[in-house]
Amino acid sequence: MLHAAKHPTPQSGRVKFSSSNSEEANPPEYEAFKGVIPRAPTTRALSVLSVDMLVADNMDAHNTSSYKNTNLIVRRNKEFIIVIRFDQPFNNQQDNVQLEFMIGNSPTENKGTYITVYIGKERRGGRWKGRVIGTQNNDVTVGITPDASCIIGRFNTFVTVMTDVGKQRTPRNPDTDFYVLFNPWDPADVVYMPRDNERQEYVMNDVGIIYNGEFNNIAPRSWNYGQFEEGILDACLLVLDAGKVPLLYRGNAIELVRQGSALMNSQDDDGVLVGNWSGDYSIGTSPTAWTGSPEILLKYAKDGGLPVCFAQCWVYAGVLNTFLRCLGIPTRVITNYSSAHDNTGNLKTDIILEEDGTVNRSRTRDSVWNYHSWNEVYMRRPDLPEKYSGWQVVDSTPQETSDGLYRCGPTSVIAIKEGELSYPFDARFVFAEVNSDVVYYQSDKYGNSNIISVDTTNVGKLIVTKRVNSNDYEDITSTYKYPEGSDQDKQAMQMAERRGVPARDYTKPAETGVAIELQADTIRIGENFKLTLNIKNQTSQKCTLNATITGCVVYYTGVTSSIFKLDSKTASVDPWKTTKVMIDVAASEYMPYRVEQSNLLFVVYGRIQETGTALTTTRVVAPRPPDLTIKVTGAPRVGKDFMVTVSFRNPFNFILNNVQLRLESPGLILTRLKTYAQIAPGGTVQYTDTITPWSPGKKVLIACLDCATVRQVTSQLEIFVQ
């Protein structure tokens, strides 16, 4: 049974759930048994001299050697080896020794927070398996196997020698603490992923690509997940502690993913990140300035669980990706281009136009985000029919509440595709994000609205993720939806309606026989460009189109800002012909109105003179930011310095003020930050730093320049350390 609330509130008189990994029990070193004490002890006194966790060997075997951590890190359902040294030889038939593993401040056996493994003459089974592998002189080699559903977190280790009169426990030793993670290498774990190349990408890869821009102008930006960096594993456990997630539930991957979705945002639980789409980031860091998750998670941990300012969707997705990969759950970041935020839940995104064709911002409640990023996790779903296991959507951007909290998922991607929306969690919301119809209305001066066109193909136009072992994107649209208009697509829609999604209660306007399409070139910020309006007459009669073209600045969330262009065109098109109409857009028109991540939304509203019928189309133009370059001087070698230079030239005719430049690289350096009060028009800056690598292999340098007037200036450079 999964829990709807963030954490249960114990009723009066009930046992309180332990919800902190950092708080520890302090068991006594000696405990006397109650009852009659024999006249002479029958068990010889055995003392523990040391416990060797064999950290390096075990971590190699458990695929955890990448973690920068001095303590042992193991995975569920896989044996790890320790060596216990006694003051005298261990006798398997006479000596009675038990290993105790504890997590939290009130460990109990029935909640999985107190584990006992017996070695020696007393043999009892428990949750975890243990065996004596061998003895040599006073050393005993023991194998321990955590069970496949055990709690994820940091355990304390004690070795206890049982005698007739009591038990002698080793003192608390932080060096023998160890972490247990999920195990995607093992079929018994619900997060098992069969293919090794996918495990390497979705669990072990510590740098990735998050895709922004628009569907026909995809803009990749590198992101440092950094799940193995020093302090990150402890920071991820702190996130769970700060969210008061009971230890009891931390072995349940479904529960942990759902909790993680809520804990990434600060909306209702002081989670990791504060969302901000206002454009004012003066009291924090702009969402576009971050280059990765470690800086955010380490700041959150350093500040004792104080939310970090600020985030937007791809930042939430990047940090959640780190959080889940760090704990061992296969996770990837997804970008959905033309993502509907359907406020009314009717699979219909309503856009209201004024009589002149401009968008009525006060009456348009729904929005289509230029792109929206979320995550997918790979897991078995024991709570659902078997076919719905595999990739699951989880989204930590606070858009709508789910069971009273801002979170979303996990919900099966296959269930979304089939319109089977009755299973947990939040399938209807995700279904609307990729399947809504965009319905355009024209409003008259009396407030009456008529449908003028319907676009069934715009939403969920393209869904992508980073390809395995490549920096290119993979088109995964077909995993979420069947081809538009196919029989299977219709069946999925019918299934969605049977599962409670309101039917699409509108009538499409009659076909006009005339189609219009708006095309645009790929441009950089500050460039002039042309729009091409294609008018296709598919009738036997000549037609004349009167068109109004409105250009406005729009945030990537689909919220419109200032109108900067209003133009009218008239064109006559012969039967069965196509005519092109060119529209010039000057940089001087849109540059004064730009907002952060500003895209340019063009709406064409046309009316055919001969028939009086109306039609409309839209196009988003996402100007690319200026270039940022990274250069390396010297051959990167382990233990040898090399130089990195990040360069930028201001191509604009205005000053850039309060500029931040970030440089980081997983496995090489944590975030290095340089600030510039201003960069003059045409001016250049160069930031040079020295790096000393301590491990060989492929590394990725990630840089980002950010200020209020230009965002998303990023670059990456792959290097190989010899």
Walk me through what this model shows.
With 722 residues, the chain is mainly β. The chain folds into four domains: 30-181, Immunoglobulin-like; 206-498, Transglutaminase-like (Coagulation Factor XIII, Chain A, domain 2, Alpha-Beta Complex), CATH 3.90.260; 514-621, Immunoglobulins (Immunoglobulin-like); 628-721, Immunoglobulin-like (Sandwich), CATH 2.60.40. Helix content is 13%, strand content 40%. It contains eleven helices and 40 strands. Strands 1, 3, 5, 6, 9, 10 and 11 form a seven-stranded mixed beta sheet that branches. A six-stranded antiparallel beta sheet has the order 22-19-18-16-25-26, with helices on both faces. Helix 3 crosses helix 5 (294-302).
Could you list some keywords that capture this structure?
722 residues, mainly beta, Immunoglobulin-like, Coagulation Factor XIII, Chain A, domain 2, 4 domains, seven-stranded mixed beta sheet, six-stranded antiparallel beta sheet, disordered N terminus, metal ion binding, protein-glutamine gamma-glutamyltransferase
Shape: elongated
What would you call the structural class?
mainly beta
Average pLDDT score: 90
Question: Total domains, how many?
Answer: 4
Oligomer type: single chain
Amino-to-carboxy terminus distance: 51 Å
CATH second-level architecture of the largest domain: Alpha-Beta Complex
Number of helices: 11
By CATH, the topology of the largest domain is Coagulation Factor XIII, Chain A, domain 2
Strand % is: 35-45%
Describe the sheet with the most strands.
7 strands, mixed
Q: What is the β-strand count? A: 40
Unreliable residue stretches: 1-15
